[in-house]
Amino acid sequence: MSDENNNISSDENAQIAQRRAKLAALRAQGNPFPNHFRRDSLAAGLHEKYGALDNAALEGESVRVKVAGRMMAKRVMGKASFAQIQDMSGRIQLFVQRDAVSAECYEEGFKKWDIGDILGAEGTLFKTKTGELSVRVDGIGLLTKSLRPLPEKFHGLVDQEIRYRQRYLDLIMNEDTRKVFELRTRIINFMRSFLAEHNFLEVETPMMHVIPGGATARPFKTHHNALGMDMFLRIAPELYLKRLVVGGFERVFEINRSFRNEGLSTRHNPEFTMLEFYQAYADYNDLMDLTEVMLRKLMHDVLGTMSIACQGHQFDFSKPFARRTVQDAILHFNPHLRDADLESLAAARMAAAALHIPLKDSYGLGKVQLEIFEKTVEQHLQNPTFITAFPTEVSPLARCNTADPFVTDRFELFVGGREIANGFSELNDAEDQAERFRRQAKEKDAGDDEAMHYDADYIRALEYGMPPTAGEGIGIDRLVMLLTDSASIRDVLLFPHMRPET
RNA sequence: GGGCCGUUAGCUCAGCCGGUAGAGCAGCAGACUUUUAAUCUGUUGGUCGUGCGUUCGAUCCGCACACGGCCCA
Fold this sequence. Notes:
- The protein is an alpha+beta fold.
- The chain has 16 helices and 18 strands.
- Helix 11 (326-333) packs across helix 13, helix 12 (345-354) packs parallel to helix 13 (365-376) and helix 14 (430-445) packs antiparallel against helix 15.
- The two termini are 28 Å apart.
- The chain binds one RNA strand through residues 11, 13-16, 18-19, 73, 75-82, 84, 93, 95, 97-99, 114-115, 128-130, 132, 134, 148-162, 164, 173, 263, 266, 358, 487-488, 498-502.
């Protein structure tokens, strides 16, 4: 180990120096980072089990406990002190008396320890005269010396930047933050077990792709040294999951990261978590039904409510989700438009121009319709709503509708004006898929760097035959934002992407 | 990418018309054996985000940059 002078950070201050001096004194007496203490209780468990008893009953049972955690409060009153330690479950108060732990331990140990230090303590449970369940400590030790002072006890840590950059500190200080991430995990666990119960097989597919596919997005590029080749971080797992359906895994899902090389915003992080699942012998209507059942059960089981408040709006999951097509939705929210305005490219372009929606010359009717939809409809889709029949032009992996091949058998689910899920009956016609890849490749050659590559192996897989299948992707981060009332994706990512500190 | 706002002690925040900075908490020293934002007495702590400019003089005014927040594309 380096000595004290070699290893100091640039933001040292007097308080840290004082703690380093205390640590140096501890080192002189022995190992200041012992790892022998074993607790037998967590704070929340004690409150749950003994919180209802009065002091007479508690003292009568003389319950011995060993607890450990970070000291978050310390109130010294001469020869007795109160402290609060925080563990993974919550907080418990310690009552530390000099005569119960020895004068040596009290004066030279406890009184010199700092808020933020990690302690182990044992003793018996009792209730103070104000009724707080506490441990009457008869043995206590320092388990880890903390060198940095914690934020102020009352206001806590408020600075957004520090909360994101030093999430560990945010988690120490803010119970709300801990709750968000615990809920995130419960949401993901729910979906995992829901799908497993419905006979879906969880799989892991490559995150490093030679041909990035499954979405229209710019990829991150990396390089494989031994193979001497560029590779891409995946923008979606879709094409690999469908290869597995070809292979006979007729229900598969994956929950993991994808990467898109785009800007950062309150809704975009370069790496984000998607759930994708695929079900053979099902179509997009089956998946809408499944999604509705899954989200309702998620609300019920995990949140315990069918109505959620997010950013000042209330969303109701108790009623059947509305379902309407892209065209119907456009007409509904633009009463001045009529069917004819969406039926030819020229008319749709005029309608878009009247709405001040910028278009590129390359856009066909489908893309123009989608632009109008995004600019005039999405924001109004507050309660859960499935939008169906997206134009084929903007759905290169989806199966065309049999009656109207201009659109695909595809849906997106919107809540609070935001897309939560995207699913469709899969295109399993290898020749049609090859033709769509060729069109995408042409657009890529023409300069659209978000257009898809031609994936010959994927076509080969389809040529063996993929059963009729429907697939869906759910943006986990955005779903968690919705369910935790979070304004920014950074609030639901433990370590959101940040520019380097200066 | 554009607009607006922010950056002052470890943390949360003040700081008037430009005259080298304050509070609370935390820390340090002391008192205190049922406190809980403990209390009481005393006290340390600052390259005011970075750089340039204007000025006799800049935390304050101007410009640029960095990071963050909000809104827009």
